[in-house]
Amino acid sequence: MTSSTESERGQAHPVLRNLQYSPIKEQDEHYIVLWDPSGLSREKLVLPLNYFFVVQHLDGHHSLEQIGALYLNRFGEFLLPDKLERLVADLEAKLFLEGPAVEAAKEARRTAFRQSPVRPAAFAGKSYEAEGFKLRRQIESFYQSKEGPEQKPSPNKGKRIKGLVAPAYEVKQAGPIYAWAYKELNEAESPDLFVLLAPCHAGMDSLFALTDKDFETPLGTVSVNKPILDYLKRQGGEFFADDVAHEQEHALEFQLPFLLDAVGKQKPCTMVPILCGFSAQDLGEQTVRTGIDRLLDLLRQAFAAAGVEPCLIASGDLAHIGMRYGDSAPPTDFSFHRCMQQDLAMLKFVEELKPEEFASFIRKEGDSRRITGFASIYTLLRLITAEAGQVLRYDRGITDQYNSTVTYASMVFF
């Protein structure tokens, strides 16, 4: 139980949840917009920069009085206590602060998710078309786009495909880059089982989050492989503790329309959906290594028992640079070109199936470019039995008015 002293401290020392933010500009005024990537709160909050300064200090270590003093020191003016209290109350009402209301909302969502027979398509109608025939036309347009894959057959046509890396970026913008990867799958000899690996952008407490829910899409339902998931649940039930993280994670969902379009028209397929939640720096901890090895061993045992070799699909973006991601200034042409060079050097280790060198590259940079697809790609490299990988296409997306940039690539493994 929480003591009254701890409860009082929590109220006096508010803690902001793991939110995302982005700078925006209206005429000559600059603001920051906050939102919840987990989807627990559907609210957004637009703040002037001076209020964002306040929000950044809601870390559980500063009282409201201390934040007021810091504000005075930074801006040379008093922030009236009632204004600060109204801001905190607004954050609480929007479920942006840790506390009992957030815990109750999390429990209600967890219960609802576990009672649901399927995982609904959370981003249909937002990031891609919600109607099946429109979605097929949208996917076809990605293949025909000038940024999309070449129309001639792949040199790998007919080979047994072992894996793909695809973006996790918004489908409407990065669809042609997804198509480069899924064209390879469409023309290859593919298995009936796919292991989908994706980052968890909202963060989670576990190294991995598995779920045994089938996933709905506008093109039909993608079923999980029940025998394999049942085996994993019996032998490694701890990996299902964060299953609710799947509810609002886009990175895995974005792969499913492309997967069904490429394979589902030809034959039924099943999947094992896995969210990955560790960093390259985390690999320095033995407990993290042990946890990763444990799941990989269980997966290999499950595949061997089922007599299948799956195709592994890692969803994940590469670098995140610019003010939206914590840099002090917008990217320049030079800094983007330098970032591209670093990305391609890093991806050489992925092509060569060298997971530890891939991780070491990111650690040496201090993950200063925020490679969000690291965990899913690393897990793929640890599991895959391919001979080599190949970068098919590399691109970037601009995410705000300040040219904040996300880079991504499509890759194939045979």
Give a verbal description of the structure.
- This protein has 414 residues and is an alpha/beta fold.
- The chain contains 14 helices and 14 strands.
- Strands 4, 5, 6, 7, 8, 9, 10, 11, 12, 13 and 14 form an eleven-stranded mixed beta sheet that branches. A three-stranded antiparallel beta sheet has the order 1-2-3.
- Residues 1-10 have low confidence and may be disordered.
Largest sheet: 11 strands, mixed
What is the number of helical segments per DSSP (H or I, 4+ residues)?
14
Give the overall average pLDDT. Answer: 95
Low-confidence stretches: 1-10
Structural class: alpha/beta
Radius of gyration computed on alpha carbons: 22 Å
Percent of residues in helices: 40-55%
| Strand-residue proportion | 15-25%
Span from first to last CA?
54 Å
**Silhouette:** globular
Q: What's the SSE pattern?
A: HEEEHHHHEHEHEEEEHHHEHEEHHHEE
**Count of β-strands:** 14
